[in-house]
User: What shape does this take?
Amino acid sequence: MSHLVLVRNRSDPLPTAPIQINSLVAEFAVLDWQESLEFYTKCLEFKISFQRPDEGFVFLEFEGAQVMFYQANLERNLVTDQAPLERPLGRGVNLQIQTKSIEPLVQKLERTGVDLSFEPEERWYRVGEFEIGVLQFAVADPDGYLLRFSEAIGSRAASR
Assistant: This one.
């Protein structure tokens, strides 16, 4: 097996990328990248940062959150052969996405007839001696990846 080795002079500056990519970005294998793209951009208001249609790949952003997805079994496949790739994908994982307000998203999803995985709720989570409050809801994308949108509503001393 051969490995590609990239060599650069450490004193040379790195080229400037046209986009700031977060330290952690989820990348989903999807069964129909066009369907996923429409769902994320039309229903959830994600914006396209860049895409490679010939690879069925797209990089999206929403209020600082970033996600990538690619058409499974097209250009390459990062999914192992340990289990068949069938919906719902991403079982056991949900992504929390911070937003300024959940209400516009909930209204848009209701107008487009998309079912929520759980309805908007207020929750308080213990963080040390404090609790952080959020309004949140979850929705599954067309492949079953669970997206939990969360709006911060404040903090308070933890109840005993």
